[in-house]
């Protein structure tokens, strides 16, 4: 956590509900910025999908293409603007591949340019398994771990199959939260930036319906958490499908299906699937290709500990963790919006800067917090389970469950915010007497071990700089 202290932390913005409680903090990754600086996430500069520019009410604009005309025989790879090579160690969650290359899938050259400029060097296991099948037009039901490349697994074939000659919406990505909709739309914009003519629109609740309809007329792809009237020629894809097909969403999903063409492709991706997904699959998918890369549920690069405390000791324990851990960026989970705000205020009173985010905040404040945290403007984020699904912030190397969850599914998604794409991460759980049975139950359900926290945590377990920059696989 940030060790930069101030006697009177101030709240920035027009109200105290904007989610940004700051001390005199340096950006994540800066020397002396707190918690030892420059930790396991490798700094925000290594984020593959950084948000570009300000986000305004969920609207995302196409990034203008800057590539020069490529003539036959040119070495097009020489003109790519590649990000710095990520030399951090990775686990077999993403390295246990068949050795395929993105070029093996006969993708458009312009799409390949966007893929490589995102820093995606080779397909991950879930991408190897699903991209060829998705390109064939077949429905897919896929399970893969958090942070192993599911977004790329469906966005790459989606963009390859877009016909720029057709003036209509051709693809729809449905996700359960507004933040994830913004993230997916930004990834799609960046990957397609050399394709010329692909338009991406993110529409979420809380935005002006008339503006959305006007933007819809000029859009090729839409990432959304809600439903709307659509044209006939549509491919539909879901991320975090288990949540979307839960009792809260399934009625809406059934209504959306009524607007889709009969000849459609449905791709369902998630780390967890309840029984409701099987019912939906039997009703709406046509002989889906099933992929399951979840022989073990938790990420190999995430080390899990628990600290046994009373409720009154939690803040003191958190303060101790701040001073002892080498944190690049951290996410701290609470079980309610009220506890998120109370904890964020308590952290600021201790002299640490933090952001907070929950579903009851105004949308513009949620957007700002999400954007600024992704860009490394604060080291610590306190949140509810709003932030468990799909959010990919490469610089996060520590997750703390200030309140322990009741469900194994929730726990799995929470700790999956660290250790992204096979990298190192640390998950620490503050356990009270009332949590003891949940702790045992989640260990058994997930087939994992959550160990008692040691007096000194080995930095090599979660800090990238304590490993040689060889890029070798981290052994489990």
TrEMBL record:
- Tell me one Pfam family matched here: Helicase_C
Q: Where is this region: Disordered?
A: 1-83
- Please provide, in alphabetical order, the Gene Ontology terms of the cellular component aspect for this entry: cytoplasmic ribonucleoprotein granule
Family matches, as InterPro entries: DEAD/DEAH_box_helicase_dom (IPR011545), Helicase_ATP-bd (IPR014001), Helicase_C-like (IPR001650), P-loop_NTPase (IPR027417), RNA_helicase_DEAD_Q_motif (IPR014014)
Query: GO MF annotations for this entry?
Result: ATP binding; hydrolase activity; RNA binding; RNA helicase activity
- First-listed, main subcellular location of the protein, grouped into a coarse class: cytoplasm
**Keyword Chloroplast attributed:** no
- Say which domain of life the source belongs to: Eukaryota
Q: What is its EC number?
A: 3.6.4.13
Query: Which residues fall in a compositionally biased region of kind Basic and acidic residues?
Result: 72-83
The reaction(s) annotated as catalysed by this protein in its Swiss-Prot or TrEMBL entry are: ATP + H2O = ADP + phosphate + H(+)
**SUPFAM superfamilies annotated for this entry?**
P-loop containing nucleoside triphosphate hydrolases (SSF52540)
Q: Which UniProt keywords apply?
A: ATP-binding, Cytoplasm, Helicase, Hydrolase, Nucleotide-binding, RNA-binding
Per UniProt, subcellular location reads as: Cytoplasm
The DEAD-box RNA helicase Q domain covers: 100-128
Regarding protein family, the annotation reads: Belongs to the DEAD box helicase family. DDX6/DHH1 subfamily.
What is this protein identified as? RNA helicase
| Organism listed in the record | Labrus bergylta
């Amino acid at each position: 956590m940030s060790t930069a202290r101030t006697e009177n932390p101030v709240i920035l913005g027009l109200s105290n509900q904007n989610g940004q409680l700051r001390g005199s903090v340096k950006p994540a990754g800066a020397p002396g910025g707190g918690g030892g600086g420059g930790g396991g996430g490798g700094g925000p500069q290594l984020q593959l999908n950084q948000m570009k520019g300000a986000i305004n009410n969920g609207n995302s604009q196409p990034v203008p293409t800057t590539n020069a005309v490529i003539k036959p025989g040119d070495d097009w790879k020489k003109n790519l603007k590649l990000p710095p090579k990520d030399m951090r160690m990775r686990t077999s969650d993403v390295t246990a591949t068949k050795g395929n290359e993105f070029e093996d899938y006969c993708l458009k050259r312009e799409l390949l340019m966007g893929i490589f400029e995102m820093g995606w060097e080779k397909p991950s296991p879930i991408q190897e398994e699903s991209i060829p099948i998705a390109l064939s037009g077949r429905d897919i039901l896929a399970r893969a771990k958090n942070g192993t490349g599911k977004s790329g697994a469906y966005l790459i074939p989606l963009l390859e199959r877009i016909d720029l000659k057709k003036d209509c919406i051709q693809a729809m990505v449905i996700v359960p939260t507004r933040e994830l909709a913004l993230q997916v739309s930004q990834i799609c914009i960046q990957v397609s930036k050399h394709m010329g003519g692909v338009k991406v629109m993110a529409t979420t609740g809380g935005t002006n319906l008339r503006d959305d309809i006007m933007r819809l007329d000029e859009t090729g792809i839409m990432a959304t958490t809600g439903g709307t009237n659509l044209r006939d020629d549509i491919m539909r894809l879901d991320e975090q499908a288990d949540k979307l097909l839960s009792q809260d969403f399934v009625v809406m999903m059934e209504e959306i299906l009524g607007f889709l063409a009969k000849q459609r492709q449905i791709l369902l991706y998630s780390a967890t699937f309840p029984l409701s997904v099987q019912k939906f699959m039997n009703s709406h998918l046509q002989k889906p290709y099933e992929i399951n890369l979840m022989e073990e549920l938790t990420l190999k690069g995430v080390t899990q500990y628990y600290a046994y405390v009373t409720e009154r000791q939690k803040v003191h324990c958190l303060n101790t963790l701040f001073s002892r851990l080498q944190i690049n960026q951290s996410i701290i989970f609470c079980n309610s919006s009220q506890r998120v705000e109370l904890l964020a205020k308590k952290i600021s009173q201790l002299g640490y800067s933090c952001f907070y985010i929950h579903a009851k905040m105004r949308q513009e404040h949620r957007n700002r917090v999400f954007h600024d945290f992704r860009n490394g403007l604060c080291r610590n984020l306190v949140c509810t389970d709003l932030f468990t699904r799909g959010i990919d912030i490469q610089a996060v190397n520590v997750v703390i469950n200030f309140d322990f969850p009741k469900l194994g599914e929730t726990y799995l998604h929470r700790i999956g915010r660290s250790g992204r794409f096979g990298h190192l991460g640390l998950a620490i759980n503050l356990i009270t007497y009332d949590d003891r049975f949940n702790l045992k139950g989640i260990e058994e359900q997930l087939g994992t071990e959550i160990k008692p926290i040691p007096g000194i945590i080995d930095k090599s377990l979660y800090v990238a700089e304590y490993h040689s920059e060889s890029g070798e696989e981290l052994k489990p």
